[in-house]
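Researcher: Sequence recovery benchmark, item below. Answer with residues only.
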């Protein structure tokens, strides 16, 4: 059980390692590709990994199932705005795009970790292992989605890798929490999932979608990232 709780984090580390296979080339086109890929991955993850499961988890509310999802979504976006505003007041400038992405992906990993813990806590071991594998495979591109933009912003590869890997460390921590508090926390799951989606979608809209002379390259990379993450989410659902 311990290994499967760690598995999503380990695959995040593997995804972050991909940053070592790319040259330090901070051209506009390379940046557009990295940020475009990250945007596509995050939007697809927000829809298939977060919002759709959130709607399913609140289905017992009937026609009001959208309420916790909409509220959580808006709160996630507001959280990022507040975090950026606090950063501006403290150091005269807001969080970088890559820093916001790291924050959003880390938050996104919290409900995923809880979900794995819930599954093991319900004693359905086979389903829990399957969920852990599915989330783990999805985390491969997510680790890269954090480390690539960091590298594009001039962060050294070792630090970009480390931060990409650390974005997944919350998963085993919250898997343990979910295991012991499966019943008490399950009611919060749709709110947490939607909160994470709101944070990621706001960051994509505000910072990651390329707005340079390489906009077309970034848009194509966005489609590629979206298709990749959508395929993984659907195939592993």
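Model:
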């Amino acid at each position: 059980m311990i290994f499967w709780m760690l598995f999503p984090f380990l695959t995040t580390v593997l995804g972050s390692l991909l940053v070592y296979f790319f040259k330090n080339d901070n051209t506009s086109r390379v940046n557009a590709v990295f940020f475009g890929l990250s945007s596509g991955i995050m939007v697809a993850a927000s829809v298939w990994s977060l919002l759709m499961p959130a709607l399913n988890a609140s289905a017992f509310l009937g026609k009001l199932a959208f309420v916790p999802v909409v509220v959580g979504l808006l709160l996630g976006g507001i959280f990022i705005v507040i975090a950026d505003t606090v950063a501006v007041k403290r150091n005269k400038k807001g969080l970088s795009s890559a820093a916001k992405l790291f924050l959003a992906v880390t938050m996104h990993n919290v409900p995923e970790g809880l979900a794995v813990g819930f599954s093991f806590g319900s004693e359905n071991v086979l389903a829990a292992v399957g969920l852990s594998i599915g989330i783990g495979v999805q985390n491969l591109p997510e680790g890269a989605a954090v480390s690539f933009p960091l590298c594009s912003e001039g962060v050294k590869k070792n630090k970009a890798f480390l931060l990409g890997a650390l974005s997944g460390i919350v998963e085993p921590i919250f898997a343990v929490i979910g295991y012991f508090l499966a019943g008490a926390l399950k009611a919060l799951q749709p709110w947490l999932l939607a909160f994470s989606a709101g944070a990621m979608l706001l960051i994509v809209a505000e910072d990651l979608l390329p707005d340079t002379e390489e906009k077309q390259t970034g848009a194509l990379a966005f489609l590629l990232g979206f298709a990749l993450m959508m395929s993984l989410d659907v195939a592993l659902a």
